[in-house]
Design goal:
CATH superfamily: MFS general substrate transporter like domains
Radius of gyration: 20 Å
Number of domains: 1
Helix content: over 70%
Strand content: under 5%
Shape: globular
CATH architecture: Up-down Bundle
Distance between the termini: 28 Å
Oligomer: single chain
CATH topology: Growth Hormone, Chain: A
Amino acid sequence: MKTAAGSPTIRSTPLRVAAFRRFVSANLISATGSAMAPLALAYSIIEQGGGAGSLGLVLATNTVPAIVFLLAGGLLADRLSRSRILFLGNLLAAGAQGALAAIVATGHATTASIAVCGLVSGAAASFTVPAAQGAVSQIVPAEHLQQANALLRLPSNAVKVLGPVVGGFIVAASGATWALAWDAVTFAAAAVLLLGLRLDAPLTASSVVSDLRAGWTGFWSRTWLWTYTAAGTVLVAAWLAGFQLLGPLVAAQQYGGARDWGLVQAAFASGLLAGTLVCLRWKPHRLLTVAVAVGGALALPLAAMGWGLPLPVVLIATLLAGIGLDIAIVAWTTAFQQHVPQAEQGRMSAFNGVGERLAIPLGYLITAFAAHTWGNQSVLLACAGLIAAAAILNLCVPDVYRINRPIRNDQSRIAK
């Protein structure tokens, strides 16, 4: 399989690369199930009598494996075929979601059994995330990376617009089983497509210890990378605790339950889609500055729900948050791919991923406890404040303004 370094640079679009089309197709198929899964998971807990504590435990259990296994996943992504890792990870996720659908369908679902399935799904993601991060830059020439990142997100974000709405009606009409089962099927189909990529291992492996030591040295030497990760530790935990944990509960108490929460998620997905369209046309020079600044928009829907604003206002705030997040993701991913060498991307992605996830399990548990003590809406406002503070503090780091789009005739320059 050709890497990006050996690919022709005359192609006007990444979609002319057959391997990239296969990668996009796998992502799209998987997205049709993943768009429904969070809502189905939340309401499978609510239907069996669980509240913030039960949902927080399940979400935390899903996240813990990422912290435990993500470094191993990043190391393997730099040493083994990334397509093989993606195949096995998606296959494992398919098994976990299939088992979850089965226990929900048979009425044997408990908080503990749902948490175990989440544990397996989280472990699968620990290996696929670093592999996917580096796979795009193996497939696509460097000058087309932003377009490739945007095109990769375009079809999946389009699916996410209708997915939560359809999922909300499915869950409201017949329970969570069918949405969870479809998620399992799409993971399996994506696994088959990803196996066909046949990407070579990007690194001649040395010892595990020396690879990890070199990875940590590279991570710590890039101030822009570890400060972005540190800010993400707070921002990601506050966003997920507020939106995934408290959002469905507030929707059930204050709005129209699964139906209205489906609309909120659809608004968020619509924002993601709009942000992707922006990224297809807008190519900012200051990639990292843009990523940090627009990521702060995630505070908007949490503040709107915390203040108890009407549903239309919440939908607008969620739409803006989605736009900001997708621009941030594309800008950040492009900056990462252009400023980190190919052979280090698995480990750098893993260190970044571990850092951003460190506080998530604790954040879920603290948020569940705080919501029980002070109420859901007060805690939502606190989460919004933390997101805004993290973005502002990250913008105070001078190195953030140095990670810019390489000049066209100097694409090979790597930030140290």
